[in-house]
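Would you mind writing out a protein's amino acid sequence and the numbers that encode its backbone to help me picture the idea?
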Amino acid sequence: MEGAGSTYETSWADQWDYNPDPVHDPKKSGASGSGGKYKQKVGEGLVKTKAVASSGVKKVKEGTTVGFQWIKDKYHKTTQKH
């Protein structure tokens, strides 16, 4: 077992494998393409989230306006009775 981790020795698989090792090219790798797909899906999800949040804010704003108008009307009705 002496020298088993040495860089000068070949492993058991290398002794029996006569094909050259493939060279890793990140430009041709499928991983970068799939990462782009995920970014696109996340981007689409953020657009949907933004739209839902925007409509939610509009509803809250409209509800608040209606609520204040109701309070104003109630106040004016009670003050006008006197």
Observations:
- The mean pLDDT is 79.
- Residues 27 and 33 are 9 Å apart (CA to CA).
- Helices lie at 12-16, 30-80.
- The radius of gyration is 34 Å.
